[in-house]
Amino acid sequence: MTDVPEESRPVAFVTGASRGIGRAIAIELARIGYDIAGNATSYDPANHDSGLGEVEERVNETGASFLAAPGDISCIDDQQQMLNAVLGRFGRIDLLINNAGVAPLQRRDMLEMPPESFDRVIGVNARGTFFLTQLVARRMIEQANENPDAHPSIIFISSISANVSSPTRAEYCMSKAAISQAAHLFADRLAEFGINVYEVRPGIIRTDMTAVVEDKYDRLIDEGLIPQNRWGQPEDVARAVVALARGDFPYSTGMIIEVSGGMNIRRL
Ligand code: NAP
Hints:
single chain; 8 helices; alpha/beta
């Protein structure tokens, strides 16, 4: 079903689309009428069972086109190559989903956190996301100037960690606070061009990223951590993204949507 009101199909560039939240976002956006450029660190065109190859199949089943745009979002050269590939294939980019991200390889007390872990997590999540957005935003401005009826948009997938303290993964929390502020800043800077920017803030979502702490989160959920009393699924995040991507929040740039089962509610 094509819900997005455009003459030709709009194009969404989804980073970290090979699995987890990004995978779900890519598939749900395809269902509402977007063609998809999906990024991850690698792509094996012969593999249709996992990674970008599997997502390609799911996207194509909806009738949408799919371009694999592998690359490291923390590498400035890769960013330009990926954008060139997207424009070479589709000639436009209407929606950027900044989803790719990494957790620390090892959770450790912030008093023991090595600089290498700080650099890696900040390098991908904050620096990589910022400069990719800067690059794509420049292109979106050209597009908006060429066609004032076009309203490209950008969605940052941050985290409740943007303002929740986890001292055993301080670098991740700081990176997500940076992404949250980046969304805020880009919303302000790009408003004059009709480019809306939103932040989607997931809570505890069942993916590879949280598999390593599954038992801990199972226990916390059993103990009542989450008002809605369950794990989030990647599709919960994708549905929030789809609601924004349909263009139904035109006068709400800079808005934050939390997808956390109510973890935003302070309780006594
Ligand atoms: P995931 O299952 O670990 O998937 C991460 C995705 O990001 C993969 O597609 C991975 O590609 C890609 N990626 C990682 N580093 C990259 C890089 N340098 N360049 C390009 N792609 C890269 O994670 P997830 O749980 O779906 O998380 C997705 C986003 O949501 C992240 O930003 C995460 O911080 C955020 N988030 C997750 C949760 C949660 O509970 N799961 C909660 C809040 C926020 P490869 O397959 O090539 O590695």
